[in-house]
Amino acid sequence: MRLQRNGLRCTPGRLRLLTLLSASQRHLSPAEAFEELARSGHAVNPTTVYRTLDALTAVGLTHSVHGPGPARYGITGEPHHHTVCRECGSVAGLSSRHLTEAVDRIEELTGLRPDSEGALLIYGRCTRCST
Ligand SMILES: [Zn+2]
Ligand SMILES: [Zn+2]
Question: Domain spanning 2-75 has what CATH number?
Answer without folding.
Answer: 1.10.10.10
